[in-house]
Design goal:
Length: 288
């Protein structure tokens, strides 16, 4: 009798242990599934879009314009396809363009004359070069013209391109580093009749950045040597009193400027310039 009771008790304990194990396993699976669900619903981090290295010229509006007025006076240099007298945005080969500048050079249909137009844009010394393609927009005269496209930066001629039927289309590139106001001027070299529309298409202005503010890492007062870091391949200037010293930074941005002996209390003004004439912020230090 006693043995039977012990056996029954052992069986009950065993069944109880199995129930506990089942419950533990079941809870473990639930926890595991919950963890997996939490992993699945963690929101993805947004990817920051990189800023483009250029802008399209047609996103800017002219600050000044002018044109030949000897005929109807409807010549212009403006965003392609958007002027009231536009000849459209399609070239003589059927290619259409979303971005670009149109230069419509109006002439009397039966009387030869020299016509011209220009527009000036404020680009604010923010860009290093302009790149585009010159095409002929489908218009009246696409076979008999001799015209030049001029680019002026702050009143100075940067580059010019002669345009004749046999030369177009072709690509152009203009250095606009340090330019605040860019003038696009189109003028005939010889008198012809019938207007011509030129497209300066996919016209991009590539951005340039000012150098980083120079940081001094060491000053050897006895030898008169200033070392530090800034942007790579720029010219670093050190103003000490009325004298300016300079040196080029290397490919890693490190520089070493040799000066006169430096006394305690001397003020040094450091700044850097790149090849596009852009200037960094000034770092002013006093030596002790």
């Amino acid at each position: 009798m006693k043995n039977d009771l012990q056996t029954d008790r052992a069986c009950l304990e065993k069944e109880k242990g199995m129930l506990v194990m089942k419950k533990f396993c079941r809870n473990g699976i639930i926890l595991l599934l919950a963890g997996m669900m939490m992993l699945c619903i963690i929101p993805a981090q947004p990817v920051m879009a990189q800023e483009k290295a250029y802008i399209y010229m047609d996103t800017l509006k002219p600050v000044k314009s002018g044109q030949y007025t000897g005929n109807e006076g409807d010549s212009f240099v403006y965003t392609i396809g958007q002027h009231q007298y536009t000849r459209g945005n399609t070239d003589i080969y059927g290619n259409s363009y979303t971005h670009g500048i149109e230069a419509w050079i109006a002439r009397w249909n039966y009387t030869p004359e020299i016509s011209w137009a220009y527009s000036t844009y404020n680009i604010g010394n923010k860009y290093k070069k302009l790149e585009a393609k010159l095409v002929l927009i489908d218009s009246y005269n696409t076979t008999n013209f001799d015209t030049t496209l001029y680019f002026y930066g702050d009143g100075k001629l940067l580059k010019k391109y002669r345009m004749t039927p046999s030369k177009i289309p072709f690509k152009i590139s203009v250095n606009v580093a340090g330019v605040k106001k860019l003038k696009i001027y189109v003028k005939d070299n010889k008198a012809v009749s019938g207007g011509t529309s030129f497209g300066i298409v996919n016209c991009k202005l590539y951005k340039s950045q000012a150098p980083k503010k120079p940081v001094i890492t060491n000053i050897n007062k006895k030898k008169g040597v200033i070392t530090g870091t800034t942007s790579k391949s720029v010219t670093v200037y050190a103003n000490i009193g009325t004298t300016t010293y300079s040196a080029k930074s290397d490919k890693n941005g490190k520089f070493k400027i040799k000066t006169q002996k430096i006394k305690n209390g001397t003020q040094i003004r450091l700044y850097a310039k790149n090849k596009y004439k852009q200037k960094s912020k000034v770092n002013t230090v006093v030596v002790y």
